[in-house]
Specification:
Length: about 160
């Protein structure tokens, strides 16, 4: 239940951005940041899983019984972290597209030419970046790695 609410805030559908606290039939026209506790939780989770992955080689030498728990923590943590990052990236791409930000910035006269170029660069990099695919692939392969390991554990 907690995980589903964690991932559903800022949920995006094909028809618009929605806030989990609102009725799903009412589009939320505001684009809001993820709450701080979620951002920092994701940061701590990503950092912890990176450390756990690197600790596996050391654990293999000093305490082999901890290798599998460390690996599961790292892979499950990556599974959650990269799903979260995938959602954030998709939300950014959708905002750039739905609000036609690139086209609006190109026409804006109150910005200097340099300001406009920087904003267009940033918005284009969000729109065109394949980083969401990176997050999705890591998310899927984390799940596959767990399934394969469980298959070896239970069927070998």
């Amino acid at each position: 239940m907690l995980l589903s609410s964690w991932f559903q805030s800022g949920f995006i559908t094909e028809t618009g951005l929605y806030n989990a606290s609102m009725n799903a039939s009412m589009p939320d026209k505001s684009v809001t940041l993820t709450p701080r506790f979620k951002m920092y939780s994701a940061f701590v989770l990503g950092l912890s899983t990176a450390i756990a992955l690197r600790a596996i080689i050391v654990l293999d030498h000093i305490q082999p019984g901890w290798v599998r728990p460390a690996w599961y923590f790292a892979v499950l943590g990556n599974f959650l972290f990269f799903y979260y990052r995938y959602q954030i990236t998709e939300k950014r791409k959708k905002a750039v597209r739905d609000y036609q930000l690139i086209e609006k910035v190109e026409e804006l006269d109150s910005l200097s030419e340099e300001d406009r170029e920087v904003l267009i660069y940033l918005l284009n990099s969000i729109r065109k970046s394949p980083e969401h695919l990176n997050y999705l692939i890591i998310f899927v392969f984390s799940l596959v790695a767990i399934a394969i390991d469980l298959g070896f554990v239970f069927f070998s």
